[in-house]
Design the sequence.
């Protein structure tokens, strides 16, 4: 599903150059649930931006679902993002003046799905995350956990190949974090490929594989016995 070969990325810092990614190699199969870990400055945000087509590597290969991701102009990048990727962010990134159902249906609007079908699909995904009865509520009327559920429904609505979750539990308390991870595990159980960037070991252990980045290289890549979030959710 994802093939990364010898990925390099540097940034100009005045007259100097900062080499952030130093030859990453990573292969992720369809249906995996992978945690990406690393301290601040390890390169994980840069890596996620490249995976999300928000930035481009200087050299190396990135192949997503058999499609080489390279030489993207903004139009092509946006098209590929909409087709392949669903994003979940720590800060939810919901539009405050739109209801839950309007937020969830937004990716479908960009896919030019007609209004009736958008509404039906959005409601279906809100039901999937347990928020059907909150469809007409604004983000300001929702708790942090509910906002993240809306964000997950929005990410799923466009039926992406891969979900990219950036610190998706970072703004939530432990109990809510585990409830969100229980939902992520259920979505993964259905076959969705999911990458979770996290600095929290307990969240990483709820994935099936943990990749550690340090100073722009992968220092550890381990398949782990997955801890089921449901064990912590009462």
Sequence:
């Amino acid at each position: 599903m994802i093939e990364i070969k010898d990925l390099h990325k540097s940034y100009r810092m005045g007259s100097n150059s900062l080499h952030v990614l130093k030859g990453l190699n990573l292969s992720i199969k369809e249906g995996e649930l992978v945690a990406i870990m690393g301290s601040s400055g390890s390169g994980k945000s840069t890596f996620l931006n490249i995976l999300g087509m928000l930035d481009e590597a200087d050299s190396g290969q990135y192949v997503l679902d058999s499609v080489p991701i390279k030489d993207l102009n903004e139009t092509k990048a946006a098209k590929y993002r909409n087709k392949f990727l669903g994003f979940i962010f720590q800060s939810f990134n919901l539009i405050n003046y739109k209801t839950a159902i309007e937020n969830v249906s937004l990716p479908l609007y960009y896919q030019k799905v007609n209004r009736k079908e958008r509404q039906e699909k959005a409601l279906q995904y809100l039901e999937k995350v347990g928020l059907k009865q909150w469809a007409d509520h604004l983000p300001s009327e929702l708790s942090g956990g509910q906002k993240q559920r809306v964000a997950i429904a929005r990410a799923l609505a466009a039926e992406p190949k891969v979900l990219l979750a950036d610190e998706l539990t970072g703004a939530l308390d432990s109990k809510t974090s585990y409830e969100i991870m229980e939902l992520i595990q259920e979505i993964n159980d259905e076959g969705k490929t999911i990458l979770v960037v996290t600095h929290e070991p307990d969240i990483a252990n709820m994935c099936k594989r943990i990749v550690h980045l340090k100073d722009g290289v992968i220092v550890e890549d381990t398949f782990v016995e997955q801890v089921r979030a449901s064990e912590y959710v009462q």
Remarks:
- Helices lie at 44-51, 74-84, 100-110, 115-128, 144-157, 174-189, 201-204.
- The two ends are 35 Å apart (CA to CA).
